[in-house]
Amino acid sequence: MPKVTIDTTPTCPYCTMAKNYFKEKNINYAEIDVAADPKEAQAMIEKTGHLGVPVIIINDTIIIGFNKPAVDRTLGL
Fold first, then answer.
1. Residue 1 pLDDT exceeds 80
2. How far apart are CA 63 and CA 48, in angstroms?
3. pLDDT-based confidence at 65, cuts 50/70/90?
4. Would you tell me the crossing angle of helices 68-75 and 13-24 to the nearest 10 degrees?
5. What is the mean pLDDT of residues 4-17?
6. Count of the separate structural domains present in the chain
7. Which residue ranges does the record assign to the Glutaredoxin domain (predicted)?
8. Which residues contact 60 (CB under 8 A, 6 or more apart)?
9. Are 43 and 66 in contact (CB under 8 A)?
10. What is the mean pLDDT of residues 4-29?
């Protein structure tokens, strides 16, 4: 089972799309609300060099934005 983490904000429509997609595919994920946690937001920026969300991390692969083909490829779907 892959380890999936999503950095999100409450108002991000692409974050919602990504979470819904993972739910449809029965993929468990951990959500980090970077709007509510400045330390996590800073960690995301340091890790990716990006300010935008969602940031999806599958095992050690970082995907910026909800890039469904990249998500499927990384998950082997």
1. no
2. 9
3. very high
4. 30
5. 96
6. 1
7. 4-63
8. none
9. no
10. 96
The token duo for 73 is 């490829």
Bridge partners of 39, per DSSP, are none
Position 51: which residue type?
A: L
- Residue 64 token pair: 């910026």
Q: What single letter denotes the amino acid at residue 71? A: V
> Domain containing 41 — which CATH number?
3.40.30.10
Residue type, 59: N
Range of the domain at 22: 4-75
Position 49, amino acid? G
